[in-house]
Structure formats: structure tokens, C-alpha cells
Specification:
By secondary structure, the protein is mostly beta strands. The chain contains 2 helices and 17 strands. Bound molecules: copper (II) ion.
């Protein structure tokens, strides 16, 4: 969950809307569009199971994300009790197949993963300038994923050019990220949920500036702006992120609360500065 209090001012188009780089020869994943406004989601009520690309559009004023979490065998009230909170409960029956990381006003984010049947919520934990997470302003929506015929789930996996492996508590890149559009394969080899949040550092700012801003209770102008990313996947799973990067310095970050101590994973060292050329 991205819990950073992004300000409406500090966002602008760095993760340009990019078409998913998918194989043209064979079947591509189904595309589901999620629209985020202040403070609601537009999305289908029901989708079939299988490999799915979620396209998050943000025509709102504030940054938004689309965390997708649920379970195959739980009711919506049970799932809402766990997740509709400023600090969600990371219960072991929850699954996070994939979600779209935060993007600013006017931006979009593209993520892909296998969606198992079940009941899910689409949620945004980004706080408003008043400090209240959007989920507490009603920004969540139910999504039912129903079993689909085998023929309908046979889409090809996206072709990735870089792999990022999430572990407890680090990011490992198979190759440096260059400027341009990438499809990143994101594997969670850790023992718990992680995410890959990508933030662009403002010119001249470094990881140390961001850490100082965190130490100052995230008050004042943040030294980064959201550039997208992927929330999840659940341990042992894989997801894909299609993202366009401009040259500059970025942070790879994980805000997921730890299952043991509840601290965001960046406090365990799961934050890394990279340079994109
Ligand atoms: Cu993590």
C-alpha cells in the first residue's frame, strides 16, 4: 500500500500512457479499465478469471492507486473488515494478485497478472492533503472474478525486458532500467506481500532527502512524485508492469506494512535509488 501523502501539486505526467507491449501473434490478456476519480473507482462489477491487464486511468485531481485484494472463499463484509481501514490488516488469507501503483492526475498505469476467481476489493490508500487515506473517503469498490472456461484463460504472458525480484527486504533488477517504455516482470520471492512503487526524485534530490522527509513525518513538499508501479503480487506469484520512464533519478519503494511489526518495508531497507539514462 502506498501511504505517502502525495500532494495534488506535486504530480505531473511522467509515466506517460503507454500501450501494453504484448505479443501480437497470439492471444493477449483481457484488458480491464479502472477509472480513479476523487474519490471513487469506475470498473466492471464482474470479470472472468485468467490473465488480465488492468489499465488505471486517473482523471482525478489527486494521485490515485488501485490496490486489488481479496480471497477465493470470503464474503465481501469479511474482506471489507480487513481492508477498509486507514491501516489494513494483512491477514494471511488475503491475496493481492496485482494492483496499479500510484499515478498523478492525468496519468495512467498498466499492470497484468493472473486473476484467480474470488471476491476482491479495488482500493486506494493514498492520503489526501488532510491526511485521510482515500479509502476512508469511500474510495473502494467490489470486484467479482468468476471462473472462466479454459479457452478463455489461455492468453500469453506479456514479454518482459527486465525482471525485478522482490524479497524480504530488497529489490533485485536483472538489468538497469533505461529511459523508454518497459514491460517489467515482477516476481515476489519473499515470505510476505511486497510491492514495487516507482517514484521520480525531483531534480537534485536523493534518497537521503526522501529519508529526511519521512523522518520529518512526511510534512512539507515531498522530494518525489509518483510514477506508477505494481502493488503485490502475493508471495510466490508474478505480475507485469508496463511503464514509460524519462531520464532521471527514481526510488524503488515498498510501503507494505510488515506482517511481524507493522512497519512499512522501507523501514526494513526496502527502498533503493536508481538512475535512469
Ligand atoms: Cu515489501
Amino acid at each position: 500500500m502506498t501511504l505517502t501523502p502525495w500532494r495534488p501539486l506535486c504530480v505531473l505526467g511522467i509515466a506517460a500512457c503507454a500501450a501494453p507491449k504484448l505479443s501480437t501473434k497470439t492471444s493477449t490478456p483481457r484488458v480491464v479499465t479502472i477509472t480513479a476519480t476523487d474519490y471513487a473507482f469506475g470498473a466492471p462489477d464482474t470479470i472472468p478469471a485468467g490473465l488480465t491487464t488492468f489499465r488505471l486511468l486517473n482523471p482525478g485531481r489527486e494521485p490515485h492507486q488501485a490496490v486489488i485484494a481479496g480471497a477465493p472463499d470470503k464474503t465481501f463484509p469479511e474482506i471489507e473488515r480487513a481492508l477498509v481501514a486507514a491501516e489494513p490488516s494483512m491477514l494471511d488469507w488475503l491475496t493481492f494478485p496485482v494492483g496499479a501503483g500510484a499515478v498523478g492526475s492525468g496519468d495512467s498505469s498498466i499492470v497484468t497478472a493472473e486473476m484467480p476467481p474470488g471476491n476482491y476489493l479495488v482500493l486506494c490508500y493514498i492520503p489526501s492533503p488532510d491526511g485521510k487515506p482515500h479509502v476512508m473517503k469511500g474510495m473502494y469498490r467490489r470486484l467479482v472474478v468468476v471462473s472462466a472456461a479454459p479457452a478463455a484463460v489461455g492468453a500469453d504472458e506479456p514479454k518482459a525486458d527486465v525482471t525485478v525480484t522482490l524479497s524480504d527486504y530488497a529489490f533485485a533488477l536483472s538489468a538497469p532500467l533505461s529511459a523508454g517504455t518497459h514491460t517489467i516482470r515482477v516476481e515476489n520471492s519473499g515470505s510476505q506481500l511486497h510491492e514495487l512503487t516507482i517514484e521520480r526524485l525531483e531534480p537534485g534530490k536523493t534518497l537521503a532527502d526522501w529519508q529526511q522527509w519521512v523522518a520529518d513525518s512526511m510534512r512539507g513538499t515531498p522530494p518525489t512524485e509518483p510514477a506508477g508501479g505494481v502493488t503485490g503480487p502475493t508471495k510466490g506469484k508474478v505480475a507485469w508492469l508496463t511503464i514509460t520512464l524519462q531520464p532521471g533519478n527514481y526510488l524503488l519503494n515498498c510501503y507494505v506494512p510488515d506482517v511481524k511489526d507493522g512497519m512499512p518495508h522501507f523501514m526494513h531497507g526496502m527502498v533503493q535509488e536508481i538512475t535512469v539514462n
